[in-house]
Design a protein that fits this description.
about 290 residues; alpha/beta; about 15% strand
Length: about 290
């Protein structure tokens, strides 16, 4: 099992200094999420081969590995030009991941919930082009339903991944999305079974609480999705239940700290999360 840090709150740290920072925070693994100098949100990667090689050297020097690379592209977007561009961006991101010697990528379904059928069709079209590339390079892909994707429900997302019918494509459970996925951690984890390979850990509030008045959005009826990525204990996710379910399922994948809410105390948040996750795992007899 791996415990990784998503260093998004440290994205101002130069890329080549990131491995040493992560090691100083007590982590042995990085989940590389979007950065402007690496793979930006929804745009073509910005890093060249020489920088990839230099980054790989710094990782080795710091004793830190990359558990996964996490790009976000509009590969299920209803606009065909956007989809074709996203496929090009994906291909370069896969090249970068292979050059780093990393065997896993994470991402989201993307698309639009109000155009779910069109978005899903675009998703399958993109997969037809990209699955052979993943297979060529032996890279696995863990997918998560995200609030405002064409698929947001946890169990429905598992069904969708089953339908891909590839041993390389698995399911990622993101704890701060619990209340958007159906608020059923045990049910989703049990339903996913061996498809569950990655966990994102951060806390969030139940936006459906107080008869839907936990958050008041104006104008009424707006279709915005609200969630947070907080330190454990600052929201309403039941982490004792979550880790008990993971232990019962024999989970042996990657657990990633992905708090985004506290850039002003990013170091303290990251070390707190490291210690708290380790405590929760130890309580359930899970070992890194």
């Amino acid at each position: 099992m791996k415990l990784a840090l998503d260093p998004y709150m440290f994205r101002g740290t130069p890329l080549l200094e990131l491995p040493r920072l992560v090691a100083d925070l007590g982590y042995e693994w990085i989940e590389l999420s979007p950065r402007d100098d690496f793979i930006p949100f929804f745009n073509h990667p910005r890093v060249n081969d020489s920088t990839v090689a230099a980054f790989k050297k710094e990782l080795a020097a710091a004793g830190v590995g990359v558990s996964s690379v996490l790009p976000l592209f509009k590969w299920s977007g209803p606009d065909e030009d956007d989809r074709q561009a996203a496929v090009r961006y994906w291909k370069r991101a896969i090249e970068i991941t292979a050059a780093l010697g990393v065997d896993t990528m994470n991402s989201e379904f993307n698309g639009r919930p109000e155009l779910a059928a069109r978005s899903e069709a675009q998703f399958w079209r993109s997969l037809e082009e990209l699955l052979p590339v993943f297979e060529r390079d032996g890279i696995k892909l863990a997918l998560e339903p995200h609030p405002d994707d064409f698929e947001e429900d946890g169990k429905a997302a598992v069904d969708l991944i089953r339908g891909i019918n590839s041993p390389l494509v698995t399911f990622l459970y993101c704890a701060p999305h619990t209340f958007h996925m159906g608020n059923d951690a045990k049910g989703i984890i049990d339903y996913a079974g061996d498809l569950l390979t990655n966990i994102h850990v951060a806390d969030s509030f139940d936006h459906t609480g107080s008869s839907g008045l936990r958050y008041i959005v104006n104008p009424p009826g707006s279709t915005v999705r609200v969630h947070q990525h907080l330190d454990i204990g600052q929201g309403e996710v039941d982490f004792d239940e979550l880790f008990a379910c993971l232990a019962a399922a024999g989970f042996n994948g990657t657990v990633t700290t992905c708090v985004f809410a506290w850039e002003e105390r990013a170091r303290e948040s990251s070390t707190f999360m490291r210690d708290k996750i380790t405590e929760l795992m130890t309580k359930q007899g899970m070992q890194l």
